[in-house]
Amino acid sequence: MKKFLIIFFLNLMMVGSIHATNSSQMKFQQENRSNIKAFTLPEKLKKARHDTVSVLKEFPFFPGDFNEFIFSNFHYPPSLQENCIQGRVVVKFCINPKGKCDHFSIVRSVDPLIDKEVLRVLKLMPRWKWRDSSKKCLWMVKAVEFQLR
Predict the structure, then answer these.
(1) What is the pLDDT of residue 29?
(2) What does the domain layout of the chain look like in residue ranges?
(3) What is the largest CA-CA distance in the chain?
(4) What is the DSSP letter of 112?
(5) Homologous superfamily of 66-146 in CATH?
(6) CA separation for the pair 75, 78 (Å, rounded)
(7) What residues contact residue 42 under an 8 Å CB cut-off, 6+ apart?
């Protein structure tokens, strides 16, 4: 009988706490409902040109190991090495139908010196190879991570 009473009171306490939580959440939502504003796109973005997306059967591939190429040609700036600056640089570039890379841009930067060095190394890249005949200009985004050891 004692076990039954203990279980009954525990259940009663749980139901009460759940009810209190739900009522406080509803009260919070009602108070903050007036703060919600509708978001509309600016006219400049509404009129923006959207590029068409096509699906390629096969992507071009880098001859060899991409990361090995980057790290074998990368020269870490000494000032950044002393200050232990490290992180991930995200680069966007275009692979043209001939396999040459161009139109490099930094999407995510760590430091301007590292960005310059990454762009220098990427411009040294050999031509990428296409596996199929539907060669098109392809935009590629790659992340290069730098860690000092």
Answers:
(1) 53
(2) 2-35, 66-146
(3) 84
(4) H
(5) TonB (3.30.2420.10)
(6) 9
(7) none
Closest CA relative to residue 120, chosen from 138, 144, 96: 144
Residue 94 three-state SS:
strand
Distance, CA of 143 to CA of 136 (rounded, Å): 22
Q: Beta 101-108 vs 138-146: how paired, if at all?
A: unpaired
Tell me the two tokens of residue 10. Answer: 């525990």
- The position carrying tokens 């880098």 is 62
Residue carrying structure tokens 């959440």: 25
State the pLDDT at residue 66. Answer: 84
Q: Is 140 left (phi over 0), alpha (psi -120 to 50) or beta?
A: beta
10-residue averages of pLDDT along the chain (149 residues): 74 64 56 51 55 59 84 85 84 88 90 90 89 75 81
What is the Cα–Cα distance from 149 to 76, expressed in whole angstroms? 12
Measure the CA–CA gap between 95 and 56, rounded to whole angstroms.
13
